[in-house]
Amino acid sequence: MRVLPTRIALCALVFVTLADPRHDARSSTHCAADAVISPIAGRLGWFDVRTAAGSTTARWPAASPEDARPAYVIRALDHSWDADGNAQTATDTLVVPQGSTVRWQLVSGLHTLTSGKDAGDPDAGAGFDYLLDEKHAQFDSTFIAPDTVNYFCFFHEPGMRGVIIVTSSAGVPGERLPSRLAFTQPPHPNPSHGAVSFGIGLAREQKVRIEVLDLLGVRVALLHDGPLAVGEHPFRWRGVADNGERARSGIYVVILRSGAMTIVREVSVLR
Predict the structure, then answer these.
(1) Fewer CB within 10 Å, N side or C side of the chain?
(2) Sheet containing 138-143: order of strands
């Protein structure tokens, strides 16, 4: 990862384009405070930044190769990072194996992408420190060693913080941890004359509820309701309802819920 010398302290801003004609002067009230940015002569893409908090130097991220297809994407929304499909997660968490490339992708707003836990972190900006705007909307980074990488947006903390957990690639060759809550194995066999097996994966520890419902939305069986650790977890429904009776022939749905996320898979039972 590239190391930059300074920390960006801006998000809502006024561009003063004295030396770079590609950008018109503009303003935004999206974030918490205004900042003035002046291009640094002879250093295209670098800016002197003045904010209510003081002065610093900022830069745009370099353009990603056109053929780059990162396996993991973290979206920058108005007031949150989103890698797990839940924009309400307090500290967005992404688990990746070493060697993975992660892309931060601007969806809306103007944001800093600053390494560190928050603005009070003495190492804030020591790993990376970029401005994401509409013309410089993404930043790719490849993590080659196990690590824990914290990052935040200066003007949206504490609500806009995230962490990437880079794990060792030891284990099954080519095995990849899930980037978000998901079915890692669909219900099988399908159709089934009895038991049904499936797997789910979690990128972070979280509370999960797994149920089997009929097509009328009536619960047939509750398989799990509680926290699960990071990683992959196998589950098995014996084809039996909570009352001990065998489920009748028909179509059922296995529902995986966590927070605002709901994932559904169908399974047919034949008797």
Answers:
(1) C
(2) 81-82, 72-76, 100-106, 138-143
